[in-house]
Amino acid sequence: MYQKVFEEGYAVVKKIQETQEDAIKQCARLIADAYISNHTFFVSGSGHSHTVSEEFYGRAGGLAFTVPILTSELTMTEHPTKSSYIEKLSGYAEILCELYHIQEGDVVLIASNSGRNAYPVELAQCAKEKGAKVVAITSVAHSSATTSRAKSKQKLMDIADVVIDNCGVLGDACLKMEGMDTWMMPTSSIANAFIVQAVSVLSAQYIMEAGKEAPVFVSLNGHADQSVNDELYRKYTRLY
Predict the structure, then answer these.
(1) Which superkingdom, per the lineage (predicted)?
(2) CA-CA 20 to 30 A from 82: which of 29, 70, 119, 147?
(3) What is the DSSP pairing of strand 133-138 with strand 162-165?
(4) How buried is residue 78: exposed, middle or buried, by Cβ count under 10 Å (0-12/13-18/19+)?
């Protein structure tokens, strides 16, 4: 099974590389344009998808201007199923949309493997109503095979301006072991990490092509000075 784990992981990343180039480039262009025009790039997700926010934000080699919508209720730090309840709760996304002051010209990237729950759907709807562009990272196969839990009966991929497919399967887990009924090896985390890095690098490229400097965090575990990141946090981090 050791080799099978790597084969499955490589296959998903390869499929993303071969099928999602246009969507990833569109996303990167939206983010770059927002930064150049002094608008904000937000990122959010709930449950395990909240890790997309952490992959974008505060990482050495990552874009310094990302603003995560990352409340404790969306993560798994307090209770493993708390975020599962919250993401099904209608109205929570609208509260965060107002608190974070999402505006026309902003870009809101939302990660949700199923794209069916109230939080990602309503955050996308609220952002669109504000005039922001919405990007989804989702499993098209999973989302297509399930019904929406949102009041509107829409799914995230129905609302987003750009949809990046993480190329996962229904249920996310892709590996079946002999003698076990339950599938293992969810691929969304692997896929999402590669997608985030591709988007980040291309966004920086487009920003530099426009004659601007792309602000990127440096590693404090290498030879960098803390003051570099401190200045970036002062300039770009959320103030609310």
Answers:
(1) Bacteria
(2) 147
(3) parallel
(4) exposed
Beta bridge partners of 129: none
Are residues 96 and 67 in contact, defined by beta-carbon separation less than 8 angstroms? no
For the chain, count helices (H), then strands (E).
10, 7
CA distance 13 to 17: 6
CA distance linking residue 55 with residue 200, whole number of Å: 10
Q: For the domain 19-217+225-236, what is the CATH superfamily, name and number?
A: Glucose-6-phosphate isomerase like protein; domain 1 (3.40.50.10490)
Q: What percent of the chain has pLDDT over 70?
A: 98
2: three-class secondary structure by DSSP = helix
Show me where the domains of the chain are located. 19-217+225-236
Q: From CA 22, how far away is CA 35, in angstroms rounded?
A: 20
Q: Are 185 and 8 in contact (CB under 8 A)?
A: yes
Q: What is the largest CA-CA distance in the chain?
A: 58
- The percent of the chain in helix, strand and coil, each rounded to the nearest 5, is 50, 15, 40
Q: What are phi and psi of 63, to 5 degrees?
A: -65, 130
DSSP 3-state assignment of 173? Answer: strand
pLDDT over 60 (residue 2) = yes
Q: Which amino acid is at 162?
A: V
pLDDT at res. 239: 47
CA distance 188 to 15: 13
Q: How far apart are CA 214 and CA 67, in angstroms?
A: 15
Q: How far apart are CA 54 and CA 85, in angstroms?
A: 21
